Amino acid sequence: MPIELYRAAFAYPDGSPALSSVTLRVGDGERLAIVGQNGAGKTTTVKLMNGLLKPTHGEVRVDGVLTTDRTTAQIARIVGYVFQNPDDQLFASDVRTEIEYLPRHLGWPDEMRTERVERAIDITGIRPHLDANPKDLPMAIRKFVAIAAVLVGACRYIVLDEPTAGLDARGLDLLRSMLDHLRDDGTAVVTITHDMRFVIDTFDRVVAMADGTVIADGRCADVFADDEVLHRARIKRLIVAQIARDLELSRTALTVDDVVALVP
Ligand SMILES: Nc1ncnc2c1ncn2[C@@H]1O[C@H](COP(=O)(O)OP(=O)(O)OP(=O)(O)O)[C@@H](O)[C@H]1O
Ligand SMILES: [Mg+2]
Question: Whole-model pTM?
Answer without folding.
Answer: 0.93
